[in-house]
Known about the structure:
38% of the residues lie in helices and 17% in strands. By secondary structure, it is an alpha/beta fold. A 6-stranded parallel sheet has the order 3-2-1-4-5-6, covered by helices on one side. The chain is globular.
Amino acid sequence: MTTNGDRANRELVLDALRSSEKLVVVTHENPDGDALGSLIAMQEILTALGKDSVMFIAASEFPLPYEYRFLPLSGLVTEPPPDLDERTIVFLDCGNIERNPAEAFRTGNPPSQRILNIDHHHDNTLFGTVNLVAPDASCTAEIVFDLLGPLGVEPTSTIANALYVGLITDTGRFMYQNTGAGAHLMAARLIEAGVDVHEIYRRVYEDVPYGKLALLARGLANVRRFDDGRLTVTLLSQSDFQASGAEESYSEGLIDHLRAVQGTAVAALVRDRIGDADGLRKVSLRASDERVDVSRIARVQGGGGHRQAAGFSTAMEWDDLVDFLRDQVAAQLA
């Protein structure tokens, strides 16, 4: 098993993509823009290479967040294919194999079943038979883009649009610290390939449902600040979602308002899961202070992510959760 995203691993991934005749591309649960963009682009690349490839997204993930519903899903299957044992599994943007919702993809038997792990999370658990993990990449879409040339595939409109969605969402529209020169060069290449920047922006960031605005109002009304504002937190309850007529995905973007507040080192969005009877809450974390690695906080609770953006699920009560977050942030700022 290889263990990093160096040039040798890139060549191994390229060789595997060239030699495999049957593949399935998958990503993590609750797929975001980078996950979906990378997934769709890879499916289109494999189709262009004449491969028998399918793209898996679990039926439980639908409807997708409204801002991504314009993306084409050619080759989609919502159940693991019956010939899964014959297919190379290509994991994209998935830092931990447990984050895929389908047990069939988590219980394979490598190396008899080849798993390609393509990702940019620095805490990736290296679960593949080949691991192309590049933490210095701004997004997984950037890694997929880098494979186009060696595979001899030109970026079609579908590929370019999908990769551009992955790029802008994971770099926060080129504002996050993970945005390097490579991200801007990639954007230029994709625009040359036909991306309509304004149209993509409108699709992803505008045409906002009223329920999202109503949920944002509730989230901002629930903001609490602790320790001189170093921790800024809000809670969205099931009643907040119901009163707003909001889908779970409508909470996306709220945490950025918290992160931007002066003096905030860590922002946290705690939200109930709609219709979830097990009492688990989703916790999203964002760091504004470079001294804090929120992925370390998330890993304590079985989650993960990036230094500046991470998350986990928990059954902790509100007061206990706030105490946990305050202690974790204080420990890193000490």
